[in-house]
Amino acid sequence: xxxxxxxxxxxxxxxxxxxxxxxxxxxxxxxxxxxxxxxxxxxxxxxxxxxxxxxxxxxxxxxxxxxxxxxxxxxxxxxxxxxxxxxxxxxxxxxxxxxxxxxxxxxxxxxxxxxxxxxxxxxxxxxxxxxxxxxxxxxxxxxxxxxxxxxxxxxxxxxxxxxxxxxxxxxxxxxxxxxxxxxxxxxxxxxxxxxxxxxxxxxxxxxxxxxxxxxxxxxxx
Length: 221
Description:
7 helices
């Protein structure tokens, strides 16, 4: 995560904005997994009012597409001139206009939710309470998805698997000097929590990272 040298004004404003946010409404159904999710439009609608009222604007933009994936950068800017920015590297499975567009939509959605601490919520709070006895469901392999957001929504396990694979490719790819890998690891702390990595999975990645330069292990602590 990058930020301006001074951070007091935007931190105060962001605290007030977050207190006014109530979550992004799940406004789209995913028939493959029989679940609902919040679209990018819903996330922006939930965030824009509280941010604007507290003097904060946001920008989201894709970076240069590489073999590692497509970086999505989200920046919050305060009227004081202070700012905070984070970049999420998204894997790209289909390198055509539709595939790239879907990756951008997916990355913007989760990056903005992560940076603002904005959770998806049911439109009716009571709808979230399943009071019926649990029913055993046979495991069904979902068919390929070709909706207007074909990259997602992914099931939580699948989403985490994609993120883990991307992290391992970055660590094992050898394209970053060790110092940059250490900084990347620190910047990815929020994303590791967002994608639900267990302590064992986090430790496994960290051990792979430290193995790149055993003599500099303490730098990654």
